[in-house]
Design a protein that fits this description.
8 strands, Lipoprotein, 161 residues, alpha+beta, 29% strand, eight-stranded antiparallel beta barrel
Length: 161
């Protein structure tokens, strides 16, 4: 195994189906001459499960204010549940009922959350940033992205930074 992938595999070992998927995608690149980008960050489904304050913004200058609004939204949190098949239970754009979605990595290193299938599907959200206390995402579908803006999720009960 390539040395740069050994640390990646170690990072996802024991992280559930989402981690296994990311590892499989990275290892698939070992058999080709085209390099596969390392994901920008590693997210597992288990890391997304919990209660989140949720808000959105459309203009970059509103990001800091929106993060504060997302923290305040913990009084009525968005709950991300564990799915039966290793994913997470979340809503798709314009859907009233949550369904099982999966963490997916694209060959360029981008990370997505969406239904099973290729990363970057129009129903996916692209995760723009992630840390254990928050993440931001944007719908791939331009119409949904325009209507919903950039989504900011802040973990409820997370330590203040």
């Amino acid at each position: 195994m390539r040395p740069h992938l050994q640390s990646f595999v170690a990072a996802v070992r024991g992280k559930g189906a989402g981690g296994v998927l990311l590892c499989a995608i990275a290892l698939a690149g070992c058999s080709t001459s085209t390099p596969v980008a390392t994901p920008q960050f590693v997210i597992t489904a288990d890391q997304l499960v919990g209660k989140w304050g949720l808000a959105s913004y459309r203009a970059e200058q509103d990001r800091v204010r929106t993060q504060a609004q997302a923290k305040a939204a913990c009084s009525n949190p968005y709950v991300i549940g564990k799915g039966a098949n290793g994913g997470v239970m979340m809503h798709l754009a314009d859907q009233a009922t949550p369904q099982e979605l999966f963490v997916k990595a694209a060959s360029d290193g981008a990370v997505y959350i969406g239904p099973q299938g290729p990363a970057g599907d129009p129903h996916d959200r692209r995760v723009l940033s992630y840390d254990p206390t928050s993440f931001t995402a944007l719908w791939v579908d331009p119409d949904a992205a325009k209507r919903y803006g950039t989504l900011v999720y802040v973990r409820c009960g997370a330590a203040k930074s």
